[in-house]
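FORM 7B - TANDEM STRUCTURE REPORT

SECTION 1: FIRST PROTEIN
SEQUENCE AND TOKENS:
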Amino acid sequence: MYTVHIKEHCSYIGTDLVNSVLKAVKILEIIGRSKPLGISEIGRELDIPKSSTHNLLQTLESEGFVERNQDTNKYNLGTRLIELGYRAQNDLAICRIAKPYLNGINQETDETVHLTILDGEEVLYVDCVESKRRMRTYSVIGIKAPLYCTAVGKAIMAELPEKNIKNIIKTRGLRRLTDSTITNASSLFQDLLETRTRGYSIDNKEHEDQLICVGSVIRDASGEAFASLSVSGPSDRMTEERIIHIGGLVKNATSEISRKLGFRE
């Protein structure tokens, strides 16, 4: 009986939380389609008590989703929604804009080309054009990977403030994945400096054995490094000369993609 009671209590909490989230979403929709509204007006529209409306609005305001006019005590949508909308727009735009470049690099190199976006302290693979060779890197769309040991990750990481990089190292660590993984902070900082200097990053068998990747960063209109592109191939095909050539290709491609997203030097 005790176990059943716990399950019922958890179910109740879950339902209550879902209802609160739905009401918060409704509040945003109501404010979004109307002029600025007060607590009583929003409560009547939702048919919920004024105290519940007040609590929901306080939470939304604290997170920047709504803003209260100090003179009228009425609510408008907050700037946090603009930030999230801008991010969603970027994420949708990046795949559409980058696709021709992925195809072009794939055709020129016949190696696998990946597109990623920064997702917290990792990169998320969002698009891919695979090589047609039998020995190739396969698509990993939907998979996340560390920043410190991947070309796509290091391309973005190289553009982050030093304190952000240190925080990532502190929270995520530099776990050894292969014999070539960089596990020393000072060595990583040196590698990131070289990445910034040449304009592209190199994963020299650091994430997976016998795999070399070359990547470059993509910026949004504000100049923020939020995405990256990479070419991956078996180490026996990725000679030093070929790495330099591919580095130029990815650097030019990401520069063009960034420009189309609104970035200007």
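SECTION 2: SECOND PROTEIN
SEQUENCE AND TOKENS:
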Amino acid sequence: MIHATAIVHPGAHLAADVEVGPGSVVGPQVEVGAGTWIGAHVVLDGRTRVGRNNRIFHFASIGGPPQDKKYKGEDSSVEIGDGNTIREYVTINRGTALDANVTRIGNDNWIMAYVHVAHDCRVGAHTVFANACQLAGHVVVGDWAYLGATTLVHQYVHIGAHAFTSMGTYLSQDLPPYVVAAGNTAEASGINSEGLKRRGFDAGAIAGLKRAYRTLYREGLSLEEARRALEAQAADCPPVRELVEFLARPGRGIVR
């Protein structure tokens, strides 16, 4: 399963059925789970753990040192879950001592060509990153988020579950769950209704989230006033609870 031109360090731990394509390099601290396919000229470096049934396409670079001038060679890692598709030229860097020392990618994510995931990012499950999205350090992306092509995300920004960005969006602040944003800099433009329908949210839940959006963005309330109003709405529409919890956490302020 390992091409004759691939270089796999004897210290690497690969499941028996892992495939490694021509010219790929796998370092001594790398672990790769069963069913994973690695294309041509891929580099897996550093302390990197890749789960089961992933597909890593040609020229991807995973586990390289962080692009952070404060990094002094301390031990850090990348952890990637199961069932991910990582396309050509994707780069995923290791974590740093300023955070948890790890960059994490969850399960069943679809990461298209030229995406960059910087040090200490945390990506949930079932996300989609269209071509050339760029995440700066310490970014958190919730489950089922969809980032349009060439979306740029400032460091420390949090993106909520089921959020959506249009092509060319620049996020300098947190994007709440369920919210659609577009522009440079980003502005909110509604709820990700179509995505929610595809994921089984019923009409009542979507209506409740649209009401929550109006409360947060259209009624002229302060952020604290909106949060209190949403607390009451969550009793009738449980998905609103995730929005309330997102607003309660400290951050960079929200796209508004």
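SECTION 3: OBSERVATIONS ON SECOND PROTEIN
The longest helix spans residues 203-217.
The chain has a mean pLDDT of 97.

SECTION 4: SIGNATURE
Preparer initials: ____
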